[in-house]
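ok so i was messing around last nite and threw this chain in just to see what happens. nothing serious, just curious
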Amino acid sequence: MRIFQIDAFTNEAFKGNPAGVCLLDGAAPHARWMQSVAAEMNVSETAFVGRTGDDWSLRWFSPTIEIALCGHATLATAHALLEEGLLSRGAVARFHTMSGVLTAAETGELIELDFPAKAAQPCEPPEGLIEGLGTQPVRVSRNEFDYLVEMANEDDIRSLIPDHALLRSLPVRGVIVTSRASTSGFDFVSRFFAPGSGIDEDPVTGSAHCALAPYWAPRLGKTDFMAYQASPRGGVLRVTLAGDRVTLAGRAVTVLRGELRV
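result:
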């Protein structure tokens, strides 16, 4: 089976978020096998994609667990299908996933994903969250996946050195930290920590922006955003809120193409 490593939400190799993409050949393999491949790839997520009629089945695994929703590996999957000639330029790919049917389509130089909005509701910070982040937040919210923590400014986001052991104890997939952007050209910045999912810091997290778009829309008075995820690798996303859906758009670069022999 063909397998790739693709850097998503970037136009430059070794930036953005690396994802594995495995093009399944025939019947879907057992989840244990996919988990083993994801552990072998050892990037934040590896996607497994296979034909199902005119559509595609798609699952995502971190090195340790199956993931319910992943943006950057979906972008990487669409990029791989386009490069391999399995998806026509301008066509819409329909992916059947744990989070419903998601779509991807090439629009100019970008690949655009249609994802569900995952709005976060205000909540009290749980024990270990503030201590794990090491700084006092402006506001704390939570959705079905993550805590969303607003910080005072972009410098707070960039300088954050969390205690991953403490964050690992939280009963969520991960912690999104965000603030308004002071860097020109961006509306908001963020980072994403998910030690409980086997990823201390995810470089660029598409699914986190499914919460960030509905969070920032009323605060910034707009529904179209340019977002920057300020991890050491960094990544750029064009994000649009449309009712209960979020459009994520970005670019991708293939850095490795190979054959999975086991």
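not much to say yet. The chain is about 20% helix and 40% strand.
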